[in-house]
Amino acid sequence: KLILITGGTGFIGNHTVSQFLSKGYRVRATARNQDACNSLLSVHSGHRDLLETQVVADITRPGAFDTAVKDVDGIVHMASPFTDKITDNERDLILPAINGTKEILQSTVSFAPKVKRVVLTSSFAAIADFSKGLRPGHVYEESQWSPLTYQATKDDKIGLAYAGSKKLAEEAAWQFVETSPGVNFSLATVNPTMVYGPAFPGSTSIKNLGQSMSDIYALMDASLTEVPPTLLPSFVDVRDVARAHLLAFETDQPQRFLLSAGDFDKQNVCDLLRDQIPELKSRVPVGNPGKPSVGEHYEIDCSRVRSVLGIEFQSFNETLLDMVRAFMEMENAE
Ligand code: NDP
């Protein structure tokens, strides 16, 4: 079977491409330029016979995916901006997220009649109501939605624009499959909390880390004297997120899958690194060892992903130590 994966060049994308290839699927990956396509081909050169790439320079352009969807049997749409380096919320985050999603669904209806399943990478941010803070006692699960509106996301100045872009894109996807004529496929969304874990070998360099990787690298690059506050106190391993995409693709219920492996705190990361990796001791801030900065906070119910997809999550120590060891290998390779 041929699967189209957008965003395959990213942190989660490389692991996802790898897991589909390892299971014997043929993968067509899109990226915005030929260099990104070439590097994806070289990272996964062991599966060269199963992997092809295509440039889609602007995912918001009408008909952007008309060629990329030809002959595919399934779709994973992951491409979406995840960065705090933005100047215009609408142009840099909202429109690529929403219109990229609508375009790939429209191209699927028009040109990919064999597709029975589309998996969209959404986020816990599409579920959580961050305006309510840490909400001790509250349990988040898949029936809940972020209240962020288009206007609030466009006008946001307090760092919620990315969350809004993910909520609005996912909402657009469900609306599309429920209301558009000619839809012949089911939709699943994967909604992870903060994604950590090792970069796929060879897929990136220390100077070019994505958003969630740079948040952790900042703790060990000797740039900090204090442990920064933890804004999002949950995490999930990138390998589990990739696996969830594969397994969500292989089931047929139209569902959201919320993914969290448990609690996360930057103080715990610093404690772990100082304790387990002696070379890093002088580079990692001390803070208040043993005293996580985040207090009581919401819980996240992941029973659906456990029962329907059968995923057991990697532990905090495995995820963070594997991630940091991958950073150290990248530093040595520079
Ligand atoms: P990366 O930044 O590593 O990858 C993002 C991918 O999306 C890249 O492949 C990039 O492709 C593509 N992309 C980014 N911006 C655009 C744009 N404007 N137009 C077209 N393509 C674009 O991020 P992650 O791997 O961390 O994120 C992947 C997905 O997972 C995103 O949808 C993100 O919202 C979601 N997510 C991530 C979480 C995390 O903690 N990392 C948590 C929850 C959800 P190109 O090669 O063309 O640059």
From TrEMBL:
Residues 3-254 form the NAD-dependent epimerase/dehydratase domain. Keywords: Oxidoreductase. The keyword Transcription regulation does not apply. GO terms for molecular function: oxidoreductase activity, acting on the CH-OH group of donors, NAD or NADP as acceptor. InterPro entries: Epimerase_deHydtase, NAD(P)-bd_dom_sf, NAD(P)_dehydrat-like. PANTHER family: NAD DEPENDENT EPIMERASE/DEHYDRATASE (PTHR10366), STEROL-4-ALPHA-CARBOXYLATE 3-DEHYDROGENASE, DECARBOXYLATING (PTHR10366:SF564). Belongs to the NAD(P)-dependent epimerase/dehydratase family. Dihydroflavonol-4-reductase subfamily. This is NAD-dependent epimerase/dehydratase domain-containing protein. It comes from Penicillium hordei.
